[in-house]
Structure formats: structure tokens, C-alpha cells
Amino acid sequence: MRLTRAGEYAIRCVLYLAMHHDRELIGRKEIAAAMDMPAQFLGKVAQQLAKAGIISIRQGSQGGYELAKRPQDIALLAVIEAIDGEIFLNDCIHRPHSCDRQTICSVHQIWDKARRQLRNTLGGVTLAELAAREKRACAGRSREQPHALQG
Amino acid sequence: MRLTRAGEYAIRCVLYLAMHHDRELIGRKEIAAAMDMPAQFLGKVAQQLAKAGIISIRQGSQGGYELAKRPQDIALLAVIEAIDGEIFLNDCIHRPHSCDRQTICSVHQIWDKARRQLRNTLGGVTLAELAAREKRACAGRSREQPHALQG
DNA sequence: TCTAATAGGATCATTTCAGTCCGATTAATC
DNA sequence: GATTAATCGGACTGAAATGATCCTATTAGA
Ligand code: SF4
Ligand code: SF4
């Protein structure tokens, strides 16, 4: 019942890209250093993101990553599911064959409802919103600095 | 992002107990057979449920399990969390130390919201409701049988 | 051509999961 | 009291997922 590390890194990566959407291409190492993750691991994650059509990658010297769509067109859910697969709180939702009793199971419906709710929440947030909020938070923090360095 | 097998078994176990709440004590093997799970494994799960105060266990000959509270006082969430631990979609929610950027992280808040929503949904359903719905579904199905054996 | 970058397959250590085994313990019954 | 039927609970195991890292190939700018 938790997000994998790879999923978390994927989010950090695209969030960084969204926050620097004005720049064309951003190198893997820069992203990894800024968002605090292993650069090699990010490479793996990025490949999956590219396959899912969320980012595009340029190889070779001066290569790097960039968003394949506009930040306001990428939902958080899409990023997560590109890495960790579609969200299914309980297996029986995904694989009907995994349990015989689902035709009468009252719990099954709860899982279905919970899953819809969760995917809805994550699907309703775009990278554009997240990046904007993040920038605001950072700005707020630097403005605060003279008053309260301890934060 | 999924329920463990142990959690699923725990739910099945307490659901069975709730559906037979009129009987005093029910043997482990009977529950395991009826709800289709390994009896040994159920033993492990039951111990945790007992520690969490959800069921009580009687040892010795003619021993077995029973609900420690009324079905309407046991939420689905409690059963799940007794086995799999408190639900945290993302580690940073649980362990603040696991990520430095959470003070400014816009994604953090989304996880927090999603988690609250999920726990709310699962916390709002009691065993009494589930058992009642399950019984109704079974009754409905047996009434249907003469008409459509294929289901 | 040289060099700086990613691609992508192989590999590996650790942890989690799912489950089993088995001796110890408990309590009803003979 | 002995037998028997049940759970307790710790040790153990195999399989899979997770979280990486390593290394060679490929790509493309200078
Ligand atoms: S018992 Fe119900 S909730 Fe559990 S796996 Fe089967 S259908 Fe799903
Ligand atoms: S970056 Fe944000 S969401 Fe991710 S672990 Fe850190 S605080 Fe949590």
C-alpha cells in the first residue's frame, strides 16, 4: 500500500522538468543532483517515462530530458502509473480470476470505490499546478529567511 | 500500492466471524476452509488480530476465534491496519526524516490528502454492513439459482 | 575523430511476501 | 491423570519485488 522509490523519483524528475519548463533540455545528472536521487536509477526511470510518452529524451553530447507535453496536460496519476503500473489496491479488482467469490463479495465493491477515489484524486492534479505551488513555496521561504533563519 | 495477502485473509476471517456472529466460537480450520485460505497462515494473521483487540482466541480443545467487539463497532480500516500497519501511500508521510524537501513539497500535500481520503473510505465501513450485504447477495444468488444456474 | 551524454542488458544485495514446520502450551474430555 | 484436540509462536524457507549498480553500445555535438 505504498509508492515505490522508482515512482517517487519519477515524480521528482517530471516536477523538476515542469519547474524549468522554459529551458529546452535538462541533463540527467543535473536533475538527479537537484532532486536527490541516484543518476543511474533515474536513467531507468526516465526510459519508462519516455515509453509512456511523458518525457522525450535526447541522446548524445549535450543530451537530456524534457517534457513531451505541456505541464498542464500531465496528471500526477499518469506519471505514477507509467512507472508502477495501474493502481489496484486489491488484486481481485485487477485479476477477476484471482478470487471466486467476487460475484457476491461485499468487500470487493469497497475496494473498487476506494480505488476510483484514489485514482481520481491523483488524476486531478497536473504538473503545472504542482510546479506553481512548489515555486510559490520556495519564494515564500526565501522571503521568510531574513525573519526566521531557523525555519 | 496494494493490500497484502495477509490483509486480505484477515478481512475474510473477520467477515466470516461477523456473518456467524450468533455462534460463539468458530474453529480456525472451518474459517480457513470456508474462506479459502491456508489454515496455518490464518493462525499467524489471527494472532495479530487478537493483539489488536479485534478478535479473541480460545486455546485448547474446542478452541477457536470470535469477534472481540460488535460487528458494527469494527471498521474495515482497523482490520487492515492491524495486519499491514497504518496506511501510508508515500513514506515521507510516515517518516518525516526520509525526505528533506517536504517542507516545501507540493506533492507531499497530495499524498496526505489521498491518504486521508482512503483511510476515511475504509474507516467508514463496518463489518456489520459488509456481513449484511454479503448475506443479502448470497440469498439473492440462491433465489436466482432456479432461473439461471450459469450465473 | 574525440568526447560527452543516454540506452539498455546483466547483475546483485536486501527486503518483503507468503507460507510451512514443529515443539510448546492450553483446555476439554475420557 | 492421561489423552486428545486445538492454538501459540518462533524458526525457517522459497520466491518475488525492490533499489540499486556496472558495463558496453550507441548517439550526436564539437
Ligand atoms: S474476498 Fe472479495 S475483496 Fe477479497 S479477493 Fe475475493 S472478491 Fe476481492
Ligand atoms: S519529494 Fe515530496 S512527495 Fe516526494 S518524498 Fe519528498 S516530501 Fe514526499
TrEMBL record, chains A, B:
GO terms for molecular function: DNA-binding transcription factor activity. PROSITE patterns: HTH_RRF2_2. InterPro entries: Tscrpt_reg_Rrf2, WH-like_DNA-bd_sf, WH_DNA-bd_sf. Signal peptide: none annotated. One of its GO terms (cellular component) is cytosol. This is Rrf2 family transcriptional regulator. It comes from Solidesulfovibrio aerotolerans.
